[in-house]
Amino acid sequence: MNRPHDLLAALAHDADPGPFALVRREGAAHLDLFTGTVRTADRLADLPLPDGAAGPRTLALVPYRQIAERGFQCVDDGTPLEYLEIAGHTRIALADALAALPQAPVVTTGAAFDVADEEYAGTVERVLAEEIGRGEGANFVIHRTLRATVQGSPLRAGLAALRRLLLGERGAYWTFLVHTGHRILVGASPERHVSVDDGLVMMNPISGTFRHAGATPDRAALLRFLRDPKEVEELYMVLDEELKMMATVAEHGGQVVGPYLKEMAHLAHTEYLLAGRGSKDVREVLRETMFAPTVTGSPMENACRVIARHERSGRRYYSGVLALLGRDGEGRQTLDAPILIRTAEISPAGELRVPVGATLVRHSTAAGEVAETHAKAAGVLAALGLAPQAPAADPARPARYGRSGSARLAPRRDPEQPLAEDPEVRALLAARNTSLARFWLEQRVPGATTLAGLAGRRALIVDGEDTFTGMLTHQLGALGLAVDVRPWQRAAPLDGYDLVVVGPGPGDPGAVTEPKMAALRALLADRLAAGLPTLAVCLGHQLLAGLLGLPLHRREAPYQGLQRDVPFFGTSRRVGFYSTFTALADRDRLGTRYGPVELSRDPADGAVHALRGPGFAGVQFHPESVLSRDGLAVLADLLGHLLARPALTAHGPADHG
Questions:
Q1: Which 8-state DSSP code applies to residue 222?
Q2: Is residue 74 flagged as an active site residue?
Q3: Tens digit of pLDDT for each residue in 216-231?
Q4: Residue 89 falls inside a structural domain
Q5: What DSSP designation does 1 have?
Q6: What is the extent of the structural domain holding 291?
Q7: What is the pLDDT of residues 340-369, one digit of tens each?
Q8: Could you confirm whether 651 is annotated as catalytic?
Q9: Same structural domain for residues 39 and 121?
Q10: Is 131 a catalytic residue?
Q11: Which helix (H) or strand (E) holds 184?
Q12: Fewer CB within 10 Å: C terminus or N terminus of the chain?
């Protein structure tokens, strides 16, 4: 069935038209209609992308459980990787689609979250205390699902919901309905996960949620939201995490553009865009970017472990992606993949699921995150006839949901001036970049930052399960080193490298028998004993400090996504931290079995931010982070110290005292 009027006629008579998808991309005056055959695949690499004329080939529904392809943990619910093998593609004018889609209200019964507010709040508190508080990561997303039963035809209900979303939502990246015969997915996703077009890879980290459902947006409240440290840091953290992914799939990493304000009917978000050139197969790009930190957390691998520990059910398609794969006019692969959030799943039996999640960071409160899950569901719930009975008076008090309702578009403060164009809003957004690393904000000219003396020199980064190593690779490469990365389990052999970097990762450095900690500690001990150039970052720094005899301390308030000015061997550097543990010292120099060590400490509490000795150095912060404005200068100084090339650093040779 390739002709749009055939599809619309079948839908009008409640006939099953077979598998199809209707997609409106952001700003389009039409919907794309895709028809074809639905099949299943085991792996992303199995998705078909045949040669031929320009156009779409495959529309894949990628469930969260595919994260297992990366070796990461998940609650395996058996949800299949389905795809529509596209045989027909036509366009339907938006006005024609709205005229044809059903207008009857959606009737549902039994609407309730599968995890009660009190239980979800308890989970939030445990994650804050047991995971973020113990160094397992910077942020984590925990989901819950609103469930209900649709009365009448599930497909008509989904199509009616699509119509309401097309009329009532704004700012969505994709507004869509996918009907496979096994399920219906309908939603309005605000967020591009990843796209590839003309060799340009783009990602779109979105975080921070301003709720204004059911009322005219309050300008003063929006300005408070834009100044809120919790909201600002939450966006920075997902920006860093997606830069890690871009470091893997783009040849020179990603360039940061923004931030912007994304306005939707019930919410506004803050967002960045990332762009970089890449040449990987788009299926590999999909695999290497599973899944967005905005719906999982960071660092990614351990975030998946945390999710598996705290979520009692699988995620199905929530936090996965829709992925449209095709070819352009020159035969090059294309990809467009929105994140599956703000999306409802309806079974052929009328079972409705609307999963939502909240991002938990060190500033989170249980009541606030419970409220955020209600707010995020509001747009889809309203489209499905599950609008709140009344706005909650307290933003921390969740709305209650009735059995039916209608989608309502919150009126603008001024239809002629979107909130994003307000001069003070624009100024607050622009100010967010003033202290960030220019390395990631500006287009980089190859060779512009190369240091004399590094040509032909090689470095190995040992990955402690944090893909910050990808960003570190690009920075060390920009300084002139040839860099390889290996996981901690397979670090050896180390021969042939001028420098070994023991990288960051989650976990308690005091866990003596934990395999990762034991392996990294042994590697560092061997390097110190042999006097071989070694740099340790974050977790590596903590383990190095322990070998040097310094006590380790767990902070009461974790330094997760925190930016600070710190002393760095005689100068002040603005850098970013992602840590819960720190080494402590009461003096600036230390005698050790490996020689004298110079320390840069916090004058207030003695926390060791950096150390260096004969042939080794460590930093507690992340010089590669977008939060580290001075990160590249820090690395240049450390390379000068470690590789015995005084000309590398403007500060001259280090004093080993």
A1: H
A2: no
A3: 678 888 999 999 988 8
A4: yes
A5: -
A6: 4-409
A7: 998 999 999 999 999 999 888 777 889 989
A8: no
A9: yes
A10: no
A11: strand 184-189
A12: C
